[in-house]
Amino acid sequence: MTSIGAEATNSRAWTAYGEHHLRRGTHVPEVDRLAWGFWPTGPGTEVLGDLCGQRVLDLGSGLGKYAAFLVREHGARIDAVDSSPTQHERALARYGDLPGLTLHLADAADHLVRADPYDLIYSIHGLGYIDPRRLLPALTTALKPGGRLVFSVLHTDLNGRGPSPTLTVRPENLHLAGSDDPLTVSMWVLTPQLWEDLLGEHGFVVDRIETLDAPEDDNPVSCRLFHARRRVRITSRPRTSRPPEPNDALGVGALLHGPRGLLLGLHRRGTRELPGGRVEPGESYAGAVVREVKEETGCTAREEDVVLLGTLLDDVGDVVRTTVVALVTRWAGEPSDQPDESVSDWRFYPLDQLPDGLFDPSAQCLTAWRPDLSIDHPPARFHPFAPCASVTPSAGEEGAPTVAE
Q1: Domain housing 247
Q2: Residues 146 and 16 in one domain
Q3: SS3 content of the chain, % helix, strand, coil (to 5)
Q4: Are 221 and 232 in contact (CB under 8 A)?
């Protein structure tokens, strides 16, 4: 099953689950603690720390009962997001008027990329229902640097089936009260090591993982509770261990920064990077920038709207690499994937929410432009053409990016 099909299955199942309980008028008692497993034992609210003044998100909140408990008993202000309209209906009926709690009906990843960044995101069993390849990049952008992510996920199910060491989805049963026919959901039940590796790839540090076993000796169900945080400093890395080919050793990196943030794409080798590439024979630097932006993103710019900030020199193996840093002050069009290009998935990132795994030259370009950015990368010598601070923002930054006619 594809990840899209798996998530669609889950959406239908949780909608049916909510409909079932709406018809039954199911009463769910208020909670007096957080239960990270499926039973009222083990760690509770203390794992979240002091919530006073924190911007908090409950991801996959269901009825919102845990978020409501934290609001009432711990003075928290919480956004609670769930994608099931019937679960959201039940939550609204019960907690819709509770001051300090805001209930959102939305896809989790969509909410994360649109929301202002949070200090803390927690989830009780919610992450296992969403493809990590879609969710984790959104979680990175939604957490402030140093922000915490605390979540529990299934490890071993009722049948004693343990987690998968590969990023695959599998069916699990969602049991309904008063019914002998369970609903089928699709879940990513992964080993702790795989979760930790995936989190690390997306800019998180895992501080600890707790084992949560069922209290009954004959119950095989087990969960894991992850305590993670977003790195304070952004990391960079090379695409490959090989040095660049000689004709690739002179390149340009294009900074397109506007109201939505900085434009970055995903290279097929896994690095996030600026539009750019090598300078072709006979090209000017500004001409190479305009061409690369068009080829890779579909956006158009003019050479007169390209400000050359300077050159970066570093070495990879025995090859000296030169990158010309360029700020594109005006452009037209919406970035999109282009046929036969190695970089795709173009997105705008706020400067305080840049992803990890930046391509080394892109990271170097960014700190040459904005030395205040917290990005770790190999050293490079920057030779400025003009003071970066003297560049006056134009329509590409203060208004809708356009090219003047």
Answers
A1: 236-398
A2: yes
A3: 30, 30, 40
A4: no
Calpha distance 19→180 (Å, rounded): 16
How many of the other CB atoms lie within 10 Å of CB of 120?
21
| CA atoms of 404 and 128, how far apart (whole Å) | 48
Last residue in a domain, options 230, 249, 280? 230
Give the number of domains in the chain.
2
In a domain, 405, yes or no: no
Residue 116: count other Cβ atoms within 10 Å of its Cβ. Answer: 10
Residue whose tokens read 């239908």: 12
Q: Which of 230, 260, 295 is the last residue of a domain?
A: 230
Cβ-in-10-Å burial (0-12, 13-18, 19+) of 46 comes to exposed
- Calculated CA dihedral for residues 323, 325, 331, 336, nearest 10 degrees: 40
Q: What is d(CA 227, CA 382) in angstroms, rounded to the nearest whole number?
A: 39
Residue 65 belongs to domain with CATH number: 3.40.50.150
| Position 403 in a domain | no
Q: Give 150-182 pLDDT, tens digit per residue.
A: 999 999 999 999 999 999 999 999 887 767 788
**pLDDT tens by residue, 307-330:** 999 999 988 777 788 999 999 999
218 assigned to some structural domain: yes
Query: How many other C-beta atoms can be found within 10 angstroms of the C-beta atom of residue 381?
Result: 10
d(CA 303, CA 309): 14
Rounded average pLDDT over 102-120: 94
